[in-house]
Amino acid sequence: MKFSFKIGSIWGIPIELHLTFLLLILAIFVLSLLSNLNFYFFFIIIALFIFVVFHELAHSIVARRYNIKVRRIVLYPIGGVSEIEDPPNNPAQEWRMALSGPLTSLILGTIILAIGLALTPQLLPAALTFTLTGNLILDLATLNILLGLFNLIPAFPMDGGRVLRAVLAQHMNYSKATRLSVITGRILGIAMVIVGFILPGYFLLIIIGLFVYIGANQEGQQTQLTTKLAQLQVKDIMQPDTTMLDSTQTLTEAQEHMQKNQHHNALVQKNGAYLGIVTQNEITKIPPQQHNLLHIEQIPLVNIVIFDDQSILEADKLRLKEQLDLLPVVQKQNPTQIIGTLTTKNIAQAYEKTQNPNQQPT
Ligand SMILES: [Zn+2]
């Protein structure tokens, strides 16, 4: 089930709006209609949306500087999440990237606050309460400052959680740093819920606390998964099967072989040496009546191999990029000798096993 919708993209990064944000915008819109066409809050929520985009773009600018690929940005009412492609592996870059978002919100908030106070200095006491005053400029300033402060809470999925993990990771390994950050997040989440129940007028803390608690767990699981997969090597899950078609076989024979093995590509050899990968994609470009006449070596082959000591994450990325469901494995010291194959199924099983380590493979 998909809970977010793509609304555009910047620098090739898809930007998605989460369902909760959409519902909030709709709810405020309906409330504005009901309350004598008072669109003040509706306008505030739309402004919040723009400020969250600014916040997230700050993360993306820093990510780009370090060549970290951002897979997508999801916008939530309380901030956004920039999903990065690789597991974190450089604490110094991670804390800078995480801190850039809240800093941007705080700086924006301070600038708007200064403008607001210059225009209406009599509202200084109201501005210091950090609640909505009804003055548009001051309220926009408050929104940005709250966005910045909230995201500095040292718990996942907030940026502060990432900063905490990165700082810890400079003194210990990532798994341990993540575990400690997840525990901190859980404790903070529970504390917020308790304070929300005790103090009157702070009931919002109950919801935020639950959100923090759930977010901490999710991030923990996700990071453990990618960290474990990054540690797994191709040789740990590949199959020793090195069946290859001969380059002089016909396209019809190649197709039959692929159908039998339920793959969309197959390895090809010539005089005993690995030649490349024949793909269903290339074969379908040839008219069917010629399939029986043409030899495999007469059509373009994909020429790639993966090394047995590469990580599963790297191999999986290559598989997706080349759209292959079968990759030939070689050793670095003997790059022409195929020692096995890695299939989509092997990778899927590794993912599953890492997610449910106690389950026996069936
Ligand atoms: Zn952020």
Q: What does this protein structure show overall?
A:
This protein has three domains: 4-152, no CATH class; 172-231; 235-352, CBS-domain (Roll). Helices cover 55% and strands 16% of the residues. The chain is built from 13 helices and ten strands. A four-stranded mixed β-sheet has the order 1-2-3-4. Strands 5-6-7 form a three-stranded mixed β-sheet. The protein has a three-stranded mixed β-sheet with strand order 8-9-10. It is elongated. Zinc ion binds at residues 55, 59, 79-80, 101, 151, 159.
| Proportion in β-strands | 15-25%
**What is the H/E order?**
EEHHEEHHHHHHHEHEEHEHEEH
Physical arrangement of strands within the biggest beta sheet: 1-2-3-4
Note the total helix count.
13
The low-confidence parts are none
Structural class: alpha/beta
Query: Largest sheet, if any?
Result: 4 strands, mixed
Write down the Rg.
Answer: 27 Å
Domain module count: 3
Shape field: elongated
What oligomeric state is this? single chain
- Total strands: 10
Can you list the ligands bound to this structure? Answer: zinc ion
What do the pLDDT scores average to? 83
Helix content: 40-55%
Distance between the terminal alpha carbons, to the nearest Å?
A: 26 Å
